[in-house]
Design goal:
Layout (H helix, E strand, L loop, with lengths): L7 H12 L7 E3 L2 H4 L8 E4 L9 H10 L4 E4 L11 H5 L3 E6 L6 H8 L4 E4 L2 H13 L3 E4 L6 H4 L3 E4 L6 E4 L5 E4 L2 E7 L3 E7 L2 E3 L4 E2 L8 H5 L2 E8 L1 E3 L18 E4 L25 H14 L6 E5 L3 H5 L9 E5 L3 E4 L22 E7 L2 H9 L5 E4 L3 E3 L4 E2 L2 E2 L3 E2 L5 H6 L4 E5 L3 E2 L2 E2 L1 E2 L14 E3 L3 E6 L3 E7 L5 H7 L5 E2 L5 E2 L3
Parallel strand pairs: 1-16, 2-3, 2-11, 3-4, 4-5, 11-14, 12-15, 14-16, 17-18, 17-21, 21-26, 22-29, 26-30, 32-33, 32-34
Antiparallel strand pairs: 6-10, 7-8, 9-10, 12-13, 18-19, 19-20, 22-23, 24-25, 27-28, 30-31, 31-32
């Protein structure tokens, strides 16, 4: 029998006491210039934030002053011309932009189409997961997002020749593999030299917490870079932040800066308007939109988690039938967001994926972008409703790009429609300036292949059979089947036994 060491517990206790220390390896910087020291020409830099929400504005302003150039900037989007990453773009400091969305940055779109800038567009959920994988030491992973599109097949323009027109650099094809009958695309981890992050508070141990919807890309990016610099609004003593509340542990943080000032610009200030008397007559255009909106609202089911695109899908939430409870998911990291705020109650740290100011309902929650898309890929979001430029008879969807003319980016749409378990409902006007939008095959780059389940227009409702094609289920009273045939660019079946008037 072994010898009993009676004082083992006191010895362990003393060892633990010696190991415990509040001293941190995180450096606390006195100025923004000290924080960005080491960034060189040609560096790959990640920038946290979503739109203008939760961006490291002090660090970005300082990088502009340094004049560092030829940067590869990784961010969900590129801000606006005079704020956020847009100021580095306008100052010609960015050589290559890696993002999911061009959005409202006209200069980014112009510079790309003119051949002055490289632009690698990555689906938002894939971008978040590539970054998360880098921080977790995972070299590659498989995702259903992008299969059958330019993301997997290659050929997406990355750089046009100077002056525009011909493609100088295009994306490469990606490996894919089938699991359980579903095709998946292999994606590799995305690393960076530097990550510039915006937190809410840090303690002197280097731990960081975030506020409301500012977790977004900040948290995964902080883990994926060789050097992570976090700017915060306040630095507190060790112990003031509860260990339960820490979003980003100090192990990931190299430098902390208390920001000098914050503008916290709101990109789309959207407020709840005072109640007005019900409008009895609508313009023809508004009547068409309202018809689609009210029909779309009939797709909500009690207990559903749903993701709604901007425009008509988002407006459909105003017409959810009484007694139906739906929890809205926003890909920038909110579950359970509510109506727009009242004037004076807007919060720049609380926006939806459309960059609009919103509120959050009791029982809601916030989380980072990688977690948000895990909910999507894991089939926890029951329905996605979004618009389209084109839809094919077999459910192919195109809604993110017109080559050489318009580049908005796919944002989170590719991930949302690639979920193997959720329904995809498209809401759109039946034609565009007389041109067919429902076709045998989409002529524009695809967002997803065989992904659409239902098409709602002002004229009718089509159910999409992924093998047999379109089935006409509902029709607006003033329309005839011949009208639908004329305005639809492909053949379709008519469910004669169950065809009914379009629900409202």
């Amino acid at each position: 029998m072994g010898r009993i060491i009676r004082n083992a517990i006191p010895i362990l206790s003393r060892l633990h006491t010696c190991a415990m220390s509040t001293k941190s390896s995180t450096k606390f910087c006195e100025s923004s210039m000290e924080a960005v020291l080491g960034v060189q020409d040609g560096s790959t830099c990640m920038f946290g934030g979503f739109g203008l929400c939760g961006i490291p504005e002090n660090l970005i302003n300082c990088l502009r002053k340094t004049g560092v150039k030829n940067l590869t900037a990784v961010s969900n989007n590129c801000g606006v011309n005079d704020f956020g990453l847009g100021i580095l773009l306008m100052n010609k400091q960015i050589k290559r932009m890696v993002a999911s969305y061009v959005g409202e940055n006209k200069e980014l779109e112009r510079a790309f189409l003119a051949g002055e800038l490289e632009l690698e567009l990555i689906p938002q959920g894939t971008l978040a997961e590539k970054i998360r994988a880098a921080g977790a030491g995972i070299p590659a992973f498989y995702t259903p997002t992008g299969y059958g599109t330019l993301i997997q097949e290659g050929g997406a323009p990355v750089k046009y020749a100077l002056g525009g027109g011909s493609i100088e650099i295009e994306s490469e094809p990606k490996e894919y593999r089938k699991f359980n009958g579903v095709n998946y695309v292999m994606e590799t981890a995305l690393h960076a030299d530097f990550a510039f992050i915006k937190g809410y508070k840090a303690d002197y141990a280097g731990n960081v917490v975030f506020r409301k919807s500012t977790q977004n890309f900040n948290i995964p990016m902080a883990k994926a870079a060789k050097h992570t610099i976090v700017e915060v609004e306040e630095i507190v003593d060790v112990g003031e932040l509860s260990p339960d509340a820490i979003h980003l542990p100090a192990i990931y943080v190299d430098k902390v800066l208390q920001g000098e000032r914050y503008e916290k610009r709101i990109e789309r200030l959207t407020l709840t308007q005072p109640a007005k008397e019900e409008v009895t007559s609508l313009s023809p255009k508004d009547e068409v939109r309202m018809r689609i909106i009210k029909r779309a609202a009939r797709e909500f089911e009690d207990g559903m988690y749903a993701n709604l695109g901007i425009g008509i899908p988002a407006l459909a939430s105003n017409y959810i039938p009484k007694g139906i409870n739906v929890t809205l998911h926003s890909e920038n990291g909110i579950l359970g967001f509510g109506p727009f705020p009242e004037p004076g109650l807007e919060d720049p740290d609380l926006i939806n994926a459309g960059k609009e100011t919103v509120t959050v309902l009791p029982g809601g929650s916030f989380f980072p972008s990688d977690e948000s898309f895990a909910m999507v890929r894991g089939n926890h979001v029951h329905m996605t409703m979004l618009g389209a430029l084109q839809v094919s008879k077999y459910g192919d969807l195109a809604n993110w790009m017109i080559p050489g003319k318009m580049v908005k980016g796919m944002g989170g749409a590719m991930d949302l429609v690639s979920s193997t378990g959720g329904r995809v409902v498209v809401t759109m006007e039946h034609t565009a300036k007389g041109a067919h939008k429902i076709l045998d095959e989409c002529s524009l780059p695809l967002t997803g292949k065989n992904v659409v389940d239902l098409i709602i227009t002002e004229k009718c409702v089509f159910k999409v059979d992924k093998n047999a094609g379109l089935v006409l289920k509902e029709i607006w009273p003033s329309e005839s089947i011949e009208d639908i045939k004329e305005s639809t660019g492909c053949d379709f079946q008519v469910d004669s036994e169950n065809l009914c008037e379009m629900l409202q």
